[in-house]
Structure formats: C-alpha cells, structure tokens
Amino acid sequence: MIQAPATRRQDPDSPERAHAADHVQRTGQRRVFWWAFLVLMGLSSAWAVATPLMGVPDEPAHVIKAAAVVRGELTGREMPDGGAFQLVTVPAGIGYYDTFGCFAQKKDTPPSCVPPFSGDPSTLVDARTSAGNYNPLYYAVVGLPSLASHGAAAVYGMRLVSALLSCLFLASAFSALSGLRRRKWAITATAVAMTPMVLFLNGAVNPNSLEYATSAALLANLVLLLERSADRTAYRRYVPVITAAACVLANTKGLSLLWLALMAATACILGTWPQIKALTRNAWVWAGTAAIGLSCAFALYWITRHDSLSSNPFEAAGSSPLTGAEIMLDRTFDYATGYVGQFGWLEVPAPMGAFVLWLGLGTALVMAAVVLARGRGRTAAVFLLAALLLLPPLLQAQAVGTIGIVWQGRYILAVFVPLLMVCGMALDRMDARGFSPQAAALLNATAILLAVFHFWTFMQTLRRYVTGWAVDRRWIDMVTEPSWQPPGGTLLSVGAFAAFLALALWLVRGAIRAERRSAEPATAEPSPAA
Q1: Residue 512: inside a domain, yes or no?
Q2: Does residue 5 sit within a domain?
Q3: C-beta neighbour count of 122 within 10 angstroms
Q4: 258 in any annotated domain
Q5: What is the mean pLDDT of residues 86-95?
Q6: How far, in Å, are 253, 264, 504 from residue 260 at the CA level?
Q7: Measured between alpha carbons, how far is 476 from 29 in angstroms, rounded to an integer?
Q8: Tens of pLDDT along 96-148?
Q9: Which domain range does residue 406 map to?
C-alpha cells in the first residue's frame, strides 16, 4: 500500500509552535482568573450580606473615614479632649453607624438592639473615627457608594466594592500561579489559605483584606515573571499587574510597606541570578519600579506626616519593650486563630473543628516545605515563616510603651497567605510529576472537608446574629423566630453561600483530576500503515 503523504512536522522550537503554546497558556490563565474571581466574589459577597452592619472589627471607623474621604476630607480634626479619635464631616445617615455598639462583643445579643435612625440622612454632621489619619487610597475607592446613598445601602455597597478589589487581586494571584511550569501544590496551598477569615474580611469595610490580596498577587506575579524572564513579551503582561499590586499595597495600611519589602525579598530568594539580572535590563521593569518608588515615597510621607501608626492606649501600655516582646511570644500560637476565623468583634470564634483543620493543613504544608524541599524554595519558606513568627513580637516591642498590646492575628494575614503559597511552590520544585492516585484521593477528601467546615463556620456565625447564642435559642429559631435577618432573608444567604461553595468544590476537584491525568503516561499512537 502507498502511504498517505505526511503533513509537515512542526519544529517544537519554531516561532509558530511557541506562539501557539503561549496563546493556549494565556487563555488558560484568563479562564482561571475569571473562575477564581467568580467564586471568591460570590463567597465574599455572601459574607458581606450575612454579617450585620458594623459587625466587623473597627468597621464604623472605616465606613465614616471612607465617607469623609470621598467628600474631600482626607484627614480628620482633633477631638476636643484629644486622643486617637478624630472628627470628620459626613452625612447623618453614615455618622449614625458609630452608635452600633449594643451587640458588639455580646454573643447573646442580636443586632436588633440597634435603635432606628431618625432624621434627615443627608444632613452633614460631625462623626468620630479612629482611622482619620490613615492613608486615603483605599477609602477613596470604597467610599464611592456613599455618594449615591446615605443609609444601609451605602454601607453594603462599600462592602461589595471592597470585596471587588480584594477578589480581583486574589484572582490575579491564582491566574499567575496557573501560568507556572510547576503549579499543582502552589495552587492547592493558596486555595487552603482562603480561610473563612479571609472571605469574611473580603466582605467587610476594612483595608486588612486588601493587604493580603495585594501581597499574594504581587508575589505570585513576580515569581511568574522571574520564571519567564527570557520571554520579552511577558514583561508587558505582568509588569503592569505587579506595579498595580505593589502601589496599592504600599498605600493600604501603616505596616504595608513592610509587607511589600517582604514580598520583594521572597521573590528574589526564589529567583536565580540570571533571572533577576534579566529583569534589571528591561525597560518595563524600570518603568514599573519608578512608579512603585513614587508610590512608596507617598506612603512613607503619609505615615510620617500624619502619624498613621498611632492608636489609643491598650493593654500593657507603658511597659518596657522586653515585657511587650515576652507577652507577644507567650501568645504567638493563640494569635493563629485569627488566620482561620474570629468574627464579629472577636466574640464569635470559628468552630473548633475549623481551627484544627486549617491550622493542621497549614502546619503540614510548612513542615513539608521545610523538611522535604530543597534549595531556594525551602529558603523562601523558612524566611516567611520566620517573619510570621518573629515580626509580631518585634513590632509590638517597639510600640508597647505608647499604645500597648493591640495585635490581632488578622494583622499578619499578608504574610500567612503568601507563606502557604511559597510552601506550595517549594513542594512543586521538589516534584514535577502530577498527583499520584493516592494524593489525588486524599486531596479530594480534603477539599470536601474544607467545604463542609466553610459552610459550618458560615452557619454558626450567621446563627449568632439571627438568634444570638443564648442557651434557650435553637437552630430552628433561625427560620421560625429570627431576631434579625440579613437582606433577602436567612435562607437566601445560606443558599447563595452553599451554591458558590459547591461551585468552588467542583472547580477544585476538576483541577485535581486534571493534574492527576497529567501524571498518567500517554498511550502511544499506532504508526501509520505502510
């Protein structure tokens, strides 16, 4: 028989082949971005609606600050009696939210105790805020809904805008990780880092969420750019994202410049010298660096000019630095609960099972990276682990004399989330193969368990607000005798959260299957008949 004429075989290193592969990868990254954004935004929005207004630590201060900033008042005025609080001018319908303290830190009291607003919500009044001297960047964006409404709708709108910002950067982190040559554990570990606390803060008016979101996006995109440093087309795709993440991070909170420096140092540890050298020779990188430098200069100016790190005195104020460090070291592992879930005004902890699950998985990832991985991956993991454990006592030691012990676990989520990401990267560098059948089965079971505890944590927290945790209230009372309900009702909030959680579980299990399939040897195709 005569063999059919063979098609021209394409050189695997040809420009056409490289262009086609690059197009496929970019399409895959865009797909990951939008799926990640949809899931994170859906889950975060469910938390935003299910949490009562001002049911988040310091939310009244941030809401009032945001409403003032969008009206041109970037800083507040000193209170007549002094102190860390400042006065700003906002609509009465926004200033009213400073009175929502009747249920804060009282787990048996539902938010129905809040007195109704009376009067004209658009009347301008003086309101106090403890965030008056904070950097205005976050508030200038989040406060925009207050220009259209002066009541509850404005605050819910602020929450959704805050969630939008955080979820965009977190989705960018997942998208960048999906572009790495070795990515299975990096994506897995970052998914584990999306704890209930992360989703809760995403859906709140609090710049804390933007810190860890931009830190994760910055580190993931930096590592991807280093890996592709030889590809000139990569710079115009990733440098703008890196620049945006770094500029926003620098101007988020008082300690954000420190997190920015940590992410840059971690990326340098993970990169090789030829990769770093290639970056220093690119015009895109220099332009981005200049923009980041200007942003950092403004952030530093704001901190020093407006004393953004000041606070009201708290516990142990006036103590020596050594005493402050000792107190913090004693509480090191207690603060880890803030990585998983401390809701409300810290009076609503996540279920004990959730703490055990997430802290156990986080510990397993860190141990695996430190013990099993080698080279730059392990060094980067150890570096961030040291920062997570040592920075809180060091930072509080130098501030305990004036403000006391103010630390909460959520303050260092900007290091915790990247730490788990880097642990995943370290494991990927150790093993390039796909998931084994045993690992895939274990990960599928873990994904189901994580979904169960996400849902259980959401339900427990919602119950605290709908009925309170009084001993005489039962689960059925959430439907039959609610004392408070979120917009749309309790069942709608629960249903929406469950639906997005099911979508997240489906996507995670699909990703595990894809990595499992990539580990299976390809079946050889039969040769053409002669």
Answers
A1: yes
A2: no
A3: 12
A4: yes
A5: 92
A6: 11, 6, 29
A7: 44
A8: 988 778 888 888 889 988 888 888 888 999 999 988 889 999 999 999 999 99
A9: 29-516
